[in-house]
Amino acid sequence: MQKTPLGRTGPATSIVGLGCMGMSDMYGPADRAESLATIDAAVEAGITLLDTGDFYGMGHNEMLIGEALKRHRRDDLLISVKFGAQRGPDGLWIGYDASPRALKTACAYSLKRLGVDHIDVYRPARLDPNVPIEETVGAIAELVKAGYVRHIGLSEVGAQTIRRAAAVHPIADLQIEYSLIARGIEDAILPTCRELGIAVTAYGVLARGLISGHWMNRQLSPTDIRGHTPRFQGENLEVNLALVEALRAVAIARGVTVAQIAVAWVLAQGDDIVPLIGARRRDRLAESLGALTLDLSPADLAAIEAAAPKGASAGARYAPAQMASLDSER
């Protein structure tokens, strides 16, 4: 597994990470034993970056990772944690809090659930509209000084907010959705990150499974958030699956899968972009890792662009209310 710096000031990380959210939440039921086996398989394959959030399953995901960590060398791994989203006992979303006092409390709880003495990258999951980003980053900087956090990251914020945050403390990376059908960061956000030496950890590289090549006739559980996402609905879904079929032709020509083409395309966009593979099963993880041996030629990249041109996808990546709240979409 190759390594790459996580930005100008961050640690070295494997060139892909493991996104663990689906093992606890959002996509319907997951198998605990298979989730743990998938984390083990990722570490054994050389993945060093594990990404989670304290609100994934209301702490369940952190405890799951904490259990997995007991079988591996902690110092060989990077744990990235998002905080801020507030949820009630029923699991419903009830607000957002990235204030200094709230985030320090959240950090304390995350350390306990993970069973670690520090978090490698700590980040607000979203911009809190009621708290200046300077206050949020400043409070995390205090945790860095105290040794509880090693590096500061951001998530789903726009270029202006990135600049304001970086003026307070070095930022290692921005976590944000980026894939063949979600390329909004290319206009202003990615250039800003590159100017400031901030890496991008890209989630949704398979568009939450939509461009994995395995989506056809899939039935979603009532607890799966994808059923409420515009890109998975009605005519939008038909348009997007047509793009997948066009990509499948490119993949077949190279003797690989659609998922491998999608992951390899993100990897080809720059060494400063680290795809987060959101696998919940070992077979899906193994498939995505096959992209690491796929060297896309200029002709391949042109064929991929022709199959799924920028702006060709249909439907927003979140429901309207969520899109309106995203600083990265302003």
From TrEMBL:
Residues covered by region (Disordered): 311-330
Keyword field contains Nuclease: no
Keywords: Oxidoreductase
Annotated ranges, domain NADP-dependent oxidoreductase: 16-307
Domain of life: Bacteria
Name of the protein in its database record: Aldo/keto reductase
UniProt key word Hydrolase: no
Matching PANTHER family: AFLATOXIN B1 ALDEHYDE REDUCTASE, ALDO-KETO REDUCTASE YAKC [NADP(+)]
Species: Phenylobacterium conjunctum
TM helices/strands, residue ranges: none
Family matches, as InterPro entries: Aldo-Keto_reductase (IPR050791), NAD(P)_OxRdtase_dom_sf (IPR036812), NADP_OxRdtase_dom (IPR023210)
